[in-house]
Amino acid sequence: MSKKIYIQLFLIMLLVFISLFLFIKYFKKTEFKSVSQVNTQQTTNNESLIEDLKYLSTDKEGNEYKIEAKKGNIDKSNPDIIFLENVEAIILLKDSDLISIKSKFAKYNTKNFNTLFNNSVSVNYGEHIMSSDFLDLSFENNLVSIYDNVSYVSGISSLSADKAEIDIINKKTKIFMESPNKKVQINNISNNGNN
Predict the structure, then answer these.
(1) Which domain holds residue 52?
(2) 126's torsion region: left (phi>0), alpha (psi -120 to 50) or beta?
(3) CA distance 105 to 121
(4) Are residues 81 and 97 in the same domain?
(5) Is 195 domain-assigned?
(6) Are residues 64 and 74 part of one domain?
(7) 9 plus 83 within the same structural domain
(8) Are residues 117 and 26 in the same domain?
(9) Strand 64-74 relative to strand 157-167: parallel, antiparallel, unpaired?
(10) Whose CA, among 3, 41, 45, 179, lies 20 to 30 Å from 32?
(11) Are 105 and 120 in contact (CB under 8 A)?
(12) How far is it, in rounded angstroms, from Cα 115 to Cα 73?
């Protein structure tokens, strides 16, 4: 074979290797290991009541997701779903600040760790504070969707909107209104009267 064919084969192999590397690094879904600690009790009406529930999940990049609840109830039709009460979740992304989520209720999937928080949801991330009626945390889509009565406070400003979306990987946030006729309300917070 000529030298030209060897060079072409080498370049094709290099291209395949780089493509495979990029796919594994950026497009492969994150897998979590899960450690759970629960106290399960059978109630009289055949439901499983869980008290002082704690789940800890860690992915291969070192990101952690911890969820705790005072009480939980396993869904009879799907045992992978647990309905939680008085919930607190902590997301610790590698090389990032701690994200704390609290709500009165949540629906937690033990297989994919997706969680739907509702009723008095609050999110604290560094100096950022957000509240809403619902928060949908999807690890499959690497997305946090916060919606219905979204309120955000940070530094010297606050805003009100219908929905906010946070990309977990890129840490990019979009805040918007559902209706194109409505605008996001932004207010300045006066600390000392000079701003």
Answers:
(1) 32-188
(2) left
(3) 9
(4) yes
(5) no
(6) yes
(7) no
(8) no
(9) unpaired
(10) 41
(11) no
(12) 14
Q: HSE, CB side, 13 Å, CA atoms: give it for residue 175.
A: 16
Per-residue pLDDT of the chain (195 residues; tens, 9 = 90+): 677 777 777 777 777 767 666 666 655 554 444 444 444 444 434 457 778 888 888 877 777 889 899 988 888 888 889 999 999 999 887 777 788 999 999 999 988 888 999 999 998 887 788 899 999 988 888 888 999 989 888 877 888 888 988 887 777 888 888 888 888 888 887 665 554
Give, in order, the Cα–Cα distances in Å from 159 to each of 79, 90, 102, 121, 149.
39, 24, 20, 16, 11
Residue-wise DSSP of 72-85: EEE-SS-TTEEEEE
Determine, yes or no, domain membership for 194.
no
Q: Which DSSP symbol is given to 192?
A: S
Please check whether residues 76 and 21 belong to one and the same domain: no
- What is the phi/psi pair of residue 23, to 5°? -65, -50
**Range 59-64 contact pairs with CB under 8 angstroms and sequence separation of 24 or more:** 59/30, 59/31, 59/32, 59/33, 60/30, 60/31, 61/30, 61/94, 62/94, 63/30, 63/91, 63/92, 63/93, 63/94, 64/90, 64/91, 64/92
